[in-house]
Amino acid sequence: MRSARRTKRPNGDGTVYRRGNGYEAAITVNGRRRTSRAPDRPAAEAALRRLRALRDTAQLPPDDRMTVAAFLEYWLSAVEPSLRHSTYARYEQYIRIHVVPFIGNQRLSRLRAVHLQDLYAKRQAAGLSAQSVLHLHRVVHKALHDAEGWEMVTRNVAHHVKPPKVPAHEFNTLTTAQVAQLIAHAEADPLGALFVLAVTTGMRQGELLGLRWGDLDLDQNSVARVQGAMQRAPQGRVRGEPKTPRSRRTVEIIEPARVSLVAYRRRQREARLALAGDWQEPDLVFTDGWEALESRSRP
Question: What structural domains does the chain harbor?
C-alpha cells in the first residue's frame, strides 16, 4: 500500500496527509494524537489551524477531564470545514438546545448508553418529535464515532442506544390531472417555469435555484445537468455542491417544461437588455427565485 504523503512542519505544529479519498490533519495534545478529516488539502490545513488554536487556548483538556459539552464544542469546530453550512447549523442547534443543557457537564469518559437513552426519552416527553429525536441520535452517534476514532473514548456508547421508531410517512402526490392543471396555470406566474420544471423532474429546490443556463440544453436533447445547488451561508446564498455525489445527474426535460423555459429565457433576456450594466448573475436561470419563494412562504 502506498504510504501517505505528509507535509513536514516543525515539531508540535501537527501534520496534514492524504487518507483514503480525502485528507487528515493531526496534532499531538497532552500526549494524545488528535485528528480531523477533510475532503481536500485546503480544508485539512484549515482544520489543522483550528486544532492548533484550540490547543494553544487550552480548549483541549486531557480526555479524562473533558466534559461532553467541551468535546462537542471541539468536535463542531473540527468537522465544520467538511460540512455544508446548513448541515453544520443543524448539528450546532441540536447540540446547543438538546444535549448541552442536559448532559453537557457529564465527563466524556464516563458517558454511558443509559445517559443517552434517558436524554432521548426526556426530550420526546418534552414534546420533541420522534423524527427529531432520531436526528439528534444521529448527530450524537456521529460525534462519538469520531471521538472513538480519535482515541478520546474507548467505545461509542451510542451503538447501544435505541432511538424511537418513526412512523412511516405517506406522501401526498399530485394526480395527472392536477399536474396538467398546474402547468396550465403556471404561464401567468413569474416563476411558472420553475414550478413546471419542479413538478416534471422532481428536482430539489436548491438544485432548481442553482441551475445555470449552461446546465440546460433546450435545443438538442432537452436535458438539465444537475451540477450545483443553492445553499444558505453566513454571507448569504451561495451555489455549492449538490447534496450527495449521486445528486450529480442529467434530468430529461419534457416538452411542457422546455416550452416554459424557452419563454422564460426570452423574458429574462429582455429584462437584461433593459437593465444593461445593472444586471446581476448573468448565467443563473432563476435569478430572484430564492427571494421570491421566501416571500411567498411568509404568513
Answer: 15-160 (1.10.150.130), 176-294 (1.10.443.10)
